Amino acid sequence: MIHNRYKNIRLAFTTGLAIVILIVTGGCWSSKEINSRAFALTMLIDRTENGEFELTIGFPLPNRMIPGQAGGSGQAKGEPFSFITKRASNIGEALREIQVDMSRTISFGQTRIIIVGRRLAEQGLDPVLEFVNRQPAFHLSANLFVTPQSLRDISYTPLIFERFVSDILRKYINQHVTLDTTVKDFIMAGYQGGDILLPLLSFSKQPEVEAQTSEKERWMGTGGAAIFSKGKMSNVELNPQELRGALWISSQLTSSIVTVNSPSGGEDISCVAQNIGTKLKPVIRGGKVAFQVLSQASAYVLSSNASVDLKDPDKLEKIEDLMEQDIKARLEKVLAKTRKARSDAFLMSQYLDWRYPKVWRKIEPEWREYYAAELPIEVKIKIKLDRTGGITRSVTQNNYK
């Protein structure tokens, strides 16, 4: 009897496991077929001059992505994506206007990029966050960008290396050349006053870029960063060089090229800083709050036009000092701009709350003013130059006889 009971248990377990495997491998989790869906990869939102919302959604076009599907044989012609734009009094109405003209149901399950126009950014992103939070399929890990110009510039971007605009922007983030700011980050910042940094896009005409048509010459690249204060975009911005400093402070930078003048003269020495780590540390001095920005990195020589002997420890130490001074000046300039914008963009208030909660509760009502005008911030940089390359002097300094 015991043997039969174990046999029945094994049979039930095997049957249940088989059913689970069949369900998982079936892949049908919804009543809607994939062929009935239009997957939104990119969402672009701005305000018009008359106060309406302008919503643009970028979709991949399946009939142009698979060879032989548009015309019988060979590669399908035309761009493998399309942008559809509608205007309405709110984002939901604009979405409905787009949906009624489509043969497929719009799905936001693949949306990873949200681009916001300047006019909307200056008024605040509350309508965008409201819309995203009410879409069950929308990922809060979608990245936010701000474009300083027209949203239509996106459609003029030449796709040289990638198939979709969203792929280009994701690569910028993965390569740590711009800020990785998500919808979730913006929502969390809202609980601390709405101060945060968003990456800016830049558009410029590049005739040297070989494009399919003359209209596709507006090259899209990483610009600086938009500084948000109280959830709205400030008129103070970070330029592309200052963006690198912001990445350094927020520990989003994996490596950076630093060029300094040689200790022996005016020649340049370029080094690559890597293994970058930065900490924001609140301290109490004389009963007042202060902050330390502590950063360290290792470095190696990338190129040198100088005659300095890189085997000399004293010379290496001087190069390290020059690099530390250069990076310190960059970070101080970034912090000065956030203070000018009255934006605690690096969320120092959170570090103060975690470390000294009682002190934070006292200073919280006046924190924004204190950060902008009074908060002492000390920047300390430590660079260790541990590799000089295969040669210790510049090749250009050799005397050929």
TrEMBL record:
<keyword id="KW-0732">Signal</keyword>
<protein>
    <submittedName>
        <fullName>Ger(X)C family spore germination protein</fullName>
    </submittedName>
</protein>
<dbReference type="InterPro" id="IPR008844">
    <property type="entry name" value="Spore_GerAC-like"/>
</dbReference>
<dbReference type="InterPro" id="IPR038501">
    <property type="entry name" value="Spore_GerAC_C_sf"/>
</dbReference>
<dbReference type="InterPro" id="IPR046953">
    <property type="entry name" value="Spore_GerAC-like_C"/>
</dbReference>
<keyword id="KW-0309">Germination</keyword>
<dbReference type="GO" id="GO:0016020">
    <property type="term" value="C:membrane"/>
</dbReference>
<keyword id="KW-0564">Palmitate</keyword>
<feature type="domain" description="Spore germination GerAC-like C-terminal">
    <location>
        <begin position="224"/>
        <end position="389"/>
    </location>
</feature>
<dbReference type="GO" id="GO:0009847">
    <property type="term" value="P:spore germination"/>
</dbReference>
<feature type="domain" description="Spore germination protein N-terminal">
    <location>
        <begin position="31"/>
        <end position="202"/>
    </location>
</feature>
<keyword id="KW-0449">Lipoprotein</keyword>
<comment type="similarity">
    <text>Belongs to the GerABKC lipoprotein family.</text>
</comment>
<dbReference type="InterPro" id="IPR057336">
    <property type="entry name" value="GerAC_N"/>
</dbReference>
<dbReference type="Pfam" id="PF25198">
    <property type="entry name" value="Spore_GerAC_N"/>
</dbReference>
<dbReference type="Pfam" id="PF05504">
    <property type="entry name" value="Spore_GerAC"/>
</dbReference>
<keyword id="KW-0472">Membrane</keyword>
